[in-house]
Amino acid sequence: MHDLFEYLKTYSYQHIPPAGNGLVFAVSEIQNKGLEEIFVSDFLKFGSYSNQKFANLINLNALSELLEVIEIEHNCDTRKIDIVHDNISGIDKMLSEELKHFEVAVKFIDSQAEELIQLADNVASIFCKIINTIVRCWDTKTEWSLENEWILTQSARFLQKIGTQNIKFTVPIQSWALAFCVKDMFAPKCSKEMRNNLFFNSEYQHWCQVIIQNIAESDFSRHAACFDELYSSGGGEP
User: Fold this and answer.
1) Does this model's pTM top 0.90?
2) How many other C-beta atoms can be found within 10 angstroms of the C-beta atom of residue 98?
């Protein structure tokens, strides 16, 4: 684990500036506080949470990252906003217990009784399906076949309608760029004659460059500041 942490600290990150790199900051803090052994012995294993039955709860990770983004991007105190979460049996109490240390209150509602929860769930499922379908089409080299024209056209309509400003991409940059290519190349205004590798290659290179540039211009120091505040308040201690 020590070798891994040292590797993460010295790695030459291509699109993230060294100053304000949240990952490097977190690794350094873990080492400075002598917490490396935790990551070897019992980090996020059973017993890491208030409920001993859970281990590495992805729901908590995703919700925490969302709260961080809201606080940073919108300069909003998450302790003062209403947070509504789908009521997942057995998880609601544990999430509340873990977040109470940060004075964050979450209201759990049955999705069957709350239309907005149902809508959010459907949008997330559709978006996931779209990304998986797009990647599959290119992986199987069937992106220009008639059998996939309908689903890619619907994917383009969906991406055009909801945009990507509020989407957190957890896929490689290449897959991210593919989604933007589909959004443009399968839009109604795009001629079908342009749906071929010749036009795709330039479109793909364009979107890869846009994404990389966007990452390079991101101010990661704000995320590092959140880590700094967390550890200075003792929140990073086990």
Assistant:
1) no
2) 20
Which residue's structure tokens are 């400003």? Answer: 165
DSSP annotation of 227? H
* Average pLDDT per block of 10 residues along the chain, 238 residues long: 84 71 80 76 56 66 79 80 81 79 83 85 88 94 95 94 73 89 94 94 93 74 58 46
| 3-class DSSP assignment, residue 18 | coil
Q: What's the 3-state SS for 37-82?
A: HHHHHCCCCCCCCCCCCCCCCHHHHHHHHHHHHHHHHCCCCHHHCC
C-beta separation of 81 from 113 below 8 A: no
What DSSP element (H or E) covers 84? Answer: strand 83-86
DSSP 8-class letter at 233: T
Torsion of CA 14, 31, 75, 169, to 10 degrees: 40
